[in-house]
Amino acid sequence: MRTFFITLLAAVLAISPVHGQSAAAAPEMKPSAGPSTLTKEERARAVDYLTESQTDFVAAIDGLSEEQWKWKAAPDRWSIAETAEHIAFTEDMIWKLVSEKIMKSPADPEKKEGVKGKEEMIMKMIPDRSRKAQAPEQLRPTGKWTTRASLVKDFGATREAEIAFVKETKEDLRSHFEEHPFLKTMDAYQWLLFNGAHNKRHTAQILEVKAEAGFPKN
């Protein structure tokens, strides 16, 4: 599983349109006993960021005709449907990485100092569309969501689980870590912000498609 995560995340940050598959139901993360380990400000920042990026994404794909949903500016460019699929798939994948792997790994608080402030880099760099690259063949869209509604539903369920976790957990997100191929060591809190930043990046890509001269009119 580690190899899969690293391969996928390398493509996510390499940074361009990538893959897709249907998101499975988000795993439930229950708060544990003990003192809160996120500050009030950290919780609010993550909740606001995840909520805002979700709202912007859903708004960007709302009201599209089927022609607009599937339209491509060129054969090698992604449609809005394919971009949305990538957003939903990656959202679920990263949430599972956090909930099923990172938070179940041994705490290592000695690493805290080395990642301090990295969320600023994540929130600035990941949404930046000036850096682009091609995705590996195995990470390209597969069209497994048959309807836009099912995609939005699955994405929303995953994002709801993430937001609830950030609001309620007493787990020490700042003491559990996973390596990223480019950003290197990131704590669990930063990985969740990465999901919001990735969402913002590809929502901007959707808006770029809609701004194309040949984009179909309603």
Structural features, described:
The chain is mainly alpha-helical. The chain has one domain (2-16, 37-136, 144-210): Four Helix Bundle (Hemerythrin (Met), subunit A) (Up-down Bundle). 54% of the residues lie in helices and 4% in strands. It contains 8 helices and 2 strands; from the N terminus they run αααααααββα. The protein has helices at residues 2-14, 40-61, 66-70, 80-101, 112-115, 118-125, 148-168, 188-210, and strands at residues 177-180, 184-187. A two-stranded antiparallel sheet has the order 1-2. A hairpin with a 3-residue loop joins strand 1 and strand 2. Helix 2 (40-61) packs antiparallel against helix 7 (148-168). It is elongated, with a radius of gyration of 17 Å. The model is unreliable at 1-6 and 11-35 (pLDDT under 50).
Shape category: elongated
CATH architecture assignment? Up-down Bundle
Our count of domains comes out at 1
Strand content: under 5%
CATH class: Mainly Alpha
Strands of the biggest beta sheet: in what spatial order? 1-2
Briefly note the structural class of the backbone.
mainly alpha
The parts where pLDDT drops under 50 for at least 5 residues are 1-6, 11-35
For the terminal residues, how far apart are their CA atoms?
43 Å
CATH topology heading: Four Helix Bundle (Hemerythrin (Met), subunit A)
* Element-level helix/strand string: HHHHHHHEEH
* Spatial extent as radius of gyration: 17 Å
Q: Give the number of DSSP strands.
A: 2
Into which percent range does the helicity of residues fall?
Answer: 40-55%
The number of helices is 8
